[in-house]
Design brief:
Elements lengths: L1 H19 L4 H12 L4 H25 L3 H10 L1 H17 L9 H15 L14 H18 L4 H11 L4 H30 L12 H22 L4 H20 L2
Helix pairs in contact: 1-2, 1-3, 1-9, 1-10, 2-3, 2-11, 3-9, 3-10, 5-7, 5-9, 6-11, 8-9
Length: about 260
């Protein structure tokens, strides 16, 4: 029964990743906390890193396929300094996350998500051209968003979208595509940081049982990989207003689920 629930959770997280740029952590973490209880929040975040990685890869591949070569170059060029900040901070936070178990709680994750939902309620007029990139600003926000995302087990999609829409003047759908790319990076670096820290500390601390079995983890990953491209296809058919509403709704529902844990 758990495997079926995890498959459905993975599928929903992948669908949301492709649809509105959220890498899936807002689904995976609440579902795991609901299934296994609030004490597993840290292990749920680790599982979420893997889901974020594969969901974002599936969505990114689809995003790049449906765009022209010039559009792909613009996306990657506009996010390059932001991604550098992510590269510097994310693996460090992932390595140190084991020491933050008492700090990270379901309520903290819920509050952060609600804050982002409120930010996304603020109307913004889309521009034809994005503002000129700022190296310092992009590096700083990239590092901050990468670190927070690794800490609470999300791909940073919401934070990335908010930054690129409100801070960089990027169109909402392009911000979603950028969030997919950043989510792939955050997921990869978070998983890498976790694996390295686990390998280095495995001799210093007793081995603990993984939260999910191999079948459970596979269900989460397969569900996400299968549905992320579908989400991207659906995203291209919806208006910006509708996508924004879906994003806000997903954040609020995830936050409420965590608050009730």
């Amino acid at each position: 029964m758990d495997v079926i629930m995890l498959l459905l959770a993975g599928a929903l997280s992948g669908l949301i990743a492709g649809l509105v740029g959220l890498a899936g952590g807002i689904v995976i973490v609440p579902v795991l906390v609901w299934l296994y209880g609030p004490p597993v929040i840290h292990d749920a975040i680790v599982v979420s890193w893997f889901a974020v990685l594969f969901n974002s890869i599936g969505a990114t591949v689809k995003q790049l396929r449906i765009r022209t070569r010039q559009e792909r170059l613009v996306l990657l060029s506009g996010a390059r300094y932001f991604m550098m900040g992510v590269f510097f901070i994310t693996p460090l936070v992932a390595c140190l996350a084991g020491g933050a178990k008492s700090f990270v709680s379901p309520r903290l994750v819920a509050i952060l998500q609600l804050c982002l939902a409120m930010v996304m309620l603020w109307p913004v007029k889309e521009q034809d051209e994005r503002r000129d990139p700022s190296r310092i600003r992009d590096l700083s926000f990239g590092g901050a968003i990468g670190g927070v995302s690794a800490l609470i087990g999300v791909g940073g999609g919401t934070y990335t979208i908010a930054y690129f829409v409100y801070g960089a003047g990027v169109r909402f759908k392009d911000a979603i595509a950028t969030a997919n790319i950043i989510g792939s990076t955050v997921g990869f670096l978070s998983v890498t940081g976790y694996v390295l820290s686990h390998a280095l500390l495995s001799n210093a601390s007793p081995e603990s049982e993984p939260l999910l079995s191999a079948a459970g983890m596979a269900a989460v990953i397969v569900g996400g990989l299968a549905f992320a491209p579908i989400g991207v296809s659906l995203s291209s058919r919806f208006s910006t207003k509708t996508l924004r509403q879906i994003l806000i709704f997903a954040l609020i529902m995830s936050s409420l689920r965590l608050m009730m844990s």
